Amino acid sequence: xxxxxxxxxxxxxxxxxxxxxxxxxxxxxxxxxxxxxxxxxxxxxxxxxxxxxxxxxxxxxxxxxxxxxxxxxxxxxxxxxxxxxxxxxxxxxxxxxxxxxxxxxxxxxxxxxxxxxxxxxxxxxxxxxxxxxxxxxxxxx
Length: 141
Hints:
- The protein is of the alpha+beta class.
- 38% of the residues lie in helices and 14% in strands.
- It has one domain.
């Protein structure tokens, strides 16, 4: 009787641990095939919610995490969010060791373009500064 109960408990524990293990692995989002080859899914994106506040970002968010938050998927070969709106992945400029003379104009044009794109797309802004900010000059090609 005790052996039977022990065996049943072991089986239940094994089933429970397997179900926990299976649920801990995230499902495949299904958007990877629509992400352009030049975009690294582990790149850090601008966190728009926190960029509008004076508080520093609590945690970096990657392209993959942001696409997952947006419930992104491929639809007819295009990247779209959960509402069906096309997604535009925009890599920001401005990580200059020594900025060009017209850097203010470049940044202004970039902001205007982003605002124009937001009318048609869900825009994900990919930071040009990836990694340790003390090493920015090494990140610029």
